[in-house]
């Protein structure tokens, strides 16, 4: 306890720059309050008092670095959460090379596969998480429902657990030690302009349909683009893959050959790399069918332009991220981190993410923070009764709208492949560059 | 004794410049060269001495096609910026008689450069697009039935944007050279019975050579290293050396990017050396 008080005193000094007098007073108050409250409730409120001085530094990709979350953390838990947004390559690099520069890492599962073995993070003790049981089975066993099939690629449950508290070896079955607590995930598919396409689209193969010559696009981020390409080649019946998330050199070569052929035949209008590029291509009508992300579809629609996130019979390409603990966390900060993670699963954030069109890792807790209509629209595939608002209060869908792809079970239950990083990554990137230069 | 002092003071005077060059140019360049021999995996660079970065780079057909493509962009941009730049400079230097108007018109040329070059580039996209202003206008006027697809996300678009962005780099040095031409030489040529074209060919072009060379160096080096114009205007469908380096950096393949950068640097230095052989800038400045 003395150590903790000292630590909080140090934080007081460094963080707010109070005078020595103020510091002594503050420390005395903190001690008094801690002892007093401890006596009354019996709850280890010593944390609750000191925790206000804790600052946790979280870094990750833009999608889940939401300032509203940091504000709510301050309000609900009392401590400060600092967020830094980086691109996924930088996140991975920083997690490995600067282990002391962060407390909470917000990374995707395929990054976790490479980063966790470097030993700069520590697994979480699931017995300390009150909401552990609320986590979707997708992240525990890989099966959303007992009879669903496990998807290819870096499915989260494959890298979700390690053997023990100091282990960096991924466990083949759930253990007490979890690498990442899932935060945000979704199922991606093709976006189309239904007003410019006059036939039903139901397969990934439609991306290379000559009918859309010069009007198709694919995303130019090699590790994700190659998966979309693989979904297309498989749907065309040109290829079968052992594991689309971990292709052999030969599979990569053949896939790229098919894509190069299509490119040279003029199939693609452009390749996109950033979110807004994909929105502009679609909104301007340069492209009528392309790989797309869910919020980009929403952005096109918000301009009053028809755009559909088309479910396809071969299934979705899914991605997911989670938050994990830095190795150096201990004592009060570690307790704060656990509290934060438990809070993350307790529903408020889940509801926020659900309203953005992503999914919460603990759907049942999120339900408590959503209206029946919201839950029906986002999670059950029902028609909206009133207007559906984004977390910021903007109208996203008018009454009567139905979510593309339907319910949570329909969408997340038909995932064909998860984003991943391949053993043949270097080779894949070289071949992808050939595709771009072709 | 006196020469010793002046020698010492000139060493003293060049020290700041030399120090700045050493810190901001020589050391970073040496670092790039050193790193280009290192090894790497997904997330780390590993100090080593391997030739794999270079052997892959120089042995890959992709590199050759990328270099060919980049040289094509550089050559086309050079031709168009030179023609336009020379014409504009000629007009400013020889047709506009009053100094005031020369300054006003010259300023007018620079005004677009007060905005970000990315903005100037991106504004072409809605203009040239399938449903863009130009295509709509052409269709409404009945000139074409179908929108012209080659206008955007093509080599045409890349070269157009490059020419738009970099012509001023050609105008300024050529204009500068032309302003130094002694007007009496032109009168002498006319008195000797030379036609306008002969004067241009035998007097103005040779005396503008330093400006042409400097402008060419600017344009060629910028286009050779460019990545954002190629990415945006080709819709990500064409590659350039700069784009390749930028992609490698994005994927944390720093050693591969460093090797590409060294090869690009050597290529550009060769081109510049070639240009300097043709025109002795020092002598004619």
UniProtKB/TrEMBL annotation, chain A:
Family annotation (Pfam families): SBP_bac_8
Keywords: Signal
SUPFAM superfamilies, per database record: Periplasmic binding protein-like II
InterPro entries: SBP, TAT_signal, TAT_signal_bac_arc
Name this polypeptide is given: ABC transporter substrate-binding protein
From TrEMBL, chain B:
Domain ABC transmembrane type-1: from-to ranges: 67-275
PROSITE patterns named in the record: ABC_TM1
Species this chain originates from: Thalassospira lohafexi
GO terms (BP aspect): transmembrane transport
Intracellular or extracellular location(s): Cell membrane
Keywords tagged on the record: Cell membrane, Membrane, Transmembrane, Transmembrane helix, Transport
Domain of life: Bacteria
A single GO cellular-component term on record: plasma membrane
Membrane topology: Multi-pass membrane protein
Transmembrane segments: 12-38, 75-93, 99-115, 150-175, 211-234, 254-279
Name of the featured protein: ABC transporter permease
Protein family membership: Belongs to the binding-protein-dependent transport system permease family. CysTW subfamily.
